[in-house]
Inverse folding.
C-alpha cells in the first residue's frame, strides 16, 4: 500500500500558484470520473455531459491524502440521484481523499462544472490561501477550503457553506458510491475493507449502506441499484 503524503497544515506562501492539489473526497477520487470534468464527456452511470476544462491535460500526479473533518451525503444529485458528498472541515474525524495535481485554471474549471456552469475564467485564490477558507457564493460547492500544503503547493477543495448538521442527510445512489469507493481504493493507500467501512460510516450512508454492500459494489461493478439496508 502507498504511504500517505503528510499535509503541512500551514498555508502556502504563494498566493498565486500555477499548480494546486485539487483534493477530491467524492466521486472525483476516480480518475475516469475526473476525466469527464477535464476532457469532457459523460461518465458511466451519470446523467449529465460535461464540457471539460479549457486545458484537457490529466493531472500530473494523484496521491492519497487524509483530511481533518468529516464527509457526509446531502441534497439530491441530478447527475447520480441520491445524496452528494460534502466536506465539513470543522467536524471531528478524518476524510479519505485523493489529491490531483492540476493547474489553478483547471481547478477553477472543475469548480465551475460542479455548479453546472461553463468553465470560462480563473478564480482568485488569494483569500482562501490567506485565510484557509473563501465563500464565493451560497452554492453547494462555492466554499473553497485550503487544508495546507504538500510539496509547497496548496491542498484545495470545495464544499458547501453550511455544516454537516445544518441540512438533512440523504442516502447516496449505488452508482455514486461505487465511483467514490473505487476511486479511493485505486489510490492504493487503503484496502477494500477500510474503504467500505469508511464510506458506510459517513452520515447519509450510515444505516443504509453496510460495509458488505459497499464492498460488493467494488467487486461486481453494479450500477444504479437501490442501496440495501444493513443486515
Amino acid at each position: 500500500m502507498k504511504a500517505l503524503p503528510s499535509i503541512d497544515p500551514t498555508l502556502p506562501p504563494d498566493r498565486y500558484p500555477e499548480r494546486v492539489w485539487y483534493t477530491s473526497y467524492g466521486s472525483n477520487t476516480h480518475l475516469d470520473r475526473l476525466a469527464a470534468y477535464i476532457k469532457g464527456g459523460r461518465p458511466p452511470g451519470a446523467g449529465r455531459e460535461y464540457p471539460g476544462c479549457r486545458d484537457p491535460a490529466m493531472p500530473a500526479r494523484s496521491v492519497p491524502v487524509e483530511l481533518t473533518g468529516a464527509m457526509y451525503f446531502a441534497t439530491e444529485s441530478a447527475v447520480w440521484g441520491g445524496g452528494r458528498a460534502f466536506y465539513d472541515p470543522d467536524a471531528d474525524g478524518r476524510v479519505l481523499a485523493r489529491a490531483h495535481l492540476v493547474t489553478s485554471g483547471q481547478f477553477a474549471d472543475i469548480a465551475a462544472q460542479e455548479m453546472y456552469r461553463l468553465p470560462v475564467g480563473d478564480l482568485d485564490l488569494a483569500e482562501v490561501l490567506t485565510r484557509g477558507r473563501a465563500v464565493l457564493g451560497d452554492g453547494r460547492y462555492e466554499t473553497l477550503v485550503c487544508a495546507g500544503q504538500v510539496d509547497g503547493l496548496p491542498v484545495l477543495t470545495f464544499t458547501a457553506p453550511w455544516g454537516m448538521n445544518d441540512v438533512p442527510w440523504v442516502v447516496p445512489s449505488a452508482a455514486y458510491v461505487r465511483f467514490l469507493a473505487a476511486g479511493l481504493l485505486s489510490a492504493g493507500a487503503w484496502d477494500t475493507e477500510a474503504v467500505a467501512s469508511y464510506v458506510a460510516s459517513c452520515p447519509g450512508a450510515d444505516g443504509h449502506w453496510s460495509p458488505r454492500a459497499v464492498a460488493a459494489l467494488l467487486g461486481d461493478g453494479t450500477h444504479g441499484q437501490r442501496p440495501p439496508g444493513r443486515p
About this structure: The first strand starts at residue 19 and ends at 24. DSSP finds six helices and eight strands in the chain. The CA atoms of residues 61 and 101 lie 5 Å apart.
